[in-house]
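Recall that a protein's primary structure is simply its ordered list of amino acids. Everything else, from secondary elements to tertiary packing, is in principle encoded there. The following example makes that idea concrete.
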Amino acid sequence: MGRKTGISAEQIANLNNYRTDFNFSELERLVLQYADAITQTPVEVPDALFVRLRENLTEAQLVELTSIIAWENYRARFSHAFGIEGENFADGAVCALPVRKINGEKDAVS
């Protein structure tokens, strides 16, 4: 899904280094920093970060972004409470996409 919306393979591979990797725009860095802050327990979003996000996003965009991040945190914590964990992944790993056959020929899923 990320690739279809414009996230590059380099960004996926370097996600753990978003703060310094040149493949991320300033806004992408801010959004990822915000996601990191919201995911921490306790949640502590620095005022300066929130101000910078407000300079780049509309109120509606900021509400939607916060909602999406909060929902993913809820989903992950809910699954964790029931012992539902990811399998065969390591911190920072990329999920390899399966190869599918199209008309009898192998084609990488985009």
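The radius of gyration is 17 Å. The domain at 3-108 is CATH 1.20.1290 (AhpD-like).
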